[in-house]
Amino acid sequence: MAGLVVANWKMYKTSSEAKEFFEELLPIVRDEQKEMVVCPPAVFLPLAAKITLGSNVQIGSQNVHHELQGQFTGEISVQMIKEYCSYVIVGHSERRPFESEEVVAAKLRLVLSSGLWAILCIGERLEQRELGETAQVIRRQMTTALEGCSKEALAKLVVAYEPVWAIGTGVSANAEQTGQVHALIREMLDSRFVKARIIYGGSVTPEDVGQIMRMQNVDGVLVGGASLNANAFAEIVKSS
Ligand code: PGA
Q1: Cα separation, 236 vs 234, whole angstroms
Q2: Could you tell me if 198 and 154 are in contact, meaning their C-beta atoms sit under 8 angstroms apart?
């Protein structure tokens, strides 16, 4: 499978800025073979889907509710986003303070059963790394999230290793740290006979993406801050 480069805009941009981004990006990456996914805020999904139609850039949602429908004011269901995107980010660390691991697992099941690709984010916090608990945290997050998912359902799984201390800090994990965790994730996937891509996220920049992509078991990147600028994102795609 081709390398995967995902942009996560988080809560940035207006609709005109979103439009401008795609108008700039699409011509620059027209001949790229890598798989590219842009995850704008939910309110821009229809616009993003329309503007990227027929291009090689796919659209993802940053989140979704874990129930199919119901009395959940302000929430967005998988049925609502489905016509506008092909990927959904599940369990991003910026959402985990409001979501239990069981809710993350329910979202993963729902997204996969809807036929969409799921990008499951996992990663340890700084204090957990300092206490030597990284492997334990990764094992628990993976096991809880994947529970109840069949091997067939996991065909559209992507796992994103995002050490929480590396997100938005300008400090990305080094080769040894990334290598160890990606190897552990690969081992856990292999034991379930699941062939998912494992991508890295956390302060990825156009300057260091080449080095990150050369690491073993790294099949792509999830980019926050550096994905807000079309040229920077295109540079990441080209150097990855
Ligand atoms: P960052 O964010 O690239 O700004 O560190 C990554 C993410 O949160 O997915």
Answers
A1: 5
A2: no
The answer to whether the CB of 185 falls within 8 A of the CB of 200 is no
Our answer on whether the CB atom of 210 is closer than 6 Å to any ligand 1 atom is: no
Q: Which of 92, 94, 124, 182 is the catalytic position?
A: 92
- Burial of 213-238, coded b for 16+ CB within 10 Å and e otherwise, reads beeebbbbbbbbbbbbebebbbbbbe
Q: Cα of 204 to ligand 1 centre, how many Å? A: 7
List, in order, residues 6 or more apart from 150 with CB less than 8 Å away.
Answer: none
How many angstroms from the chain centroid is the CA of residue 66? 17
pLDDT in tens, 50-78: 999 999 999 999 999 999 999 999 999 99
Question: Distance between CA 104 and CA 123 in Å, rounded?
Answer: 13
- Tell me the CA–centroid distance for residue 168 and ligand 1, in Å: 5
Tell if the pTM clears 0.90, that is, is over it.
yes
Give dist(CA 159, CA 108) in Å, integer: 11
Residues 166-221 pLDDT 10s? 999 999 999 999 999 999 999 999 999 999 999 999 999 999 999 999 999 999 99
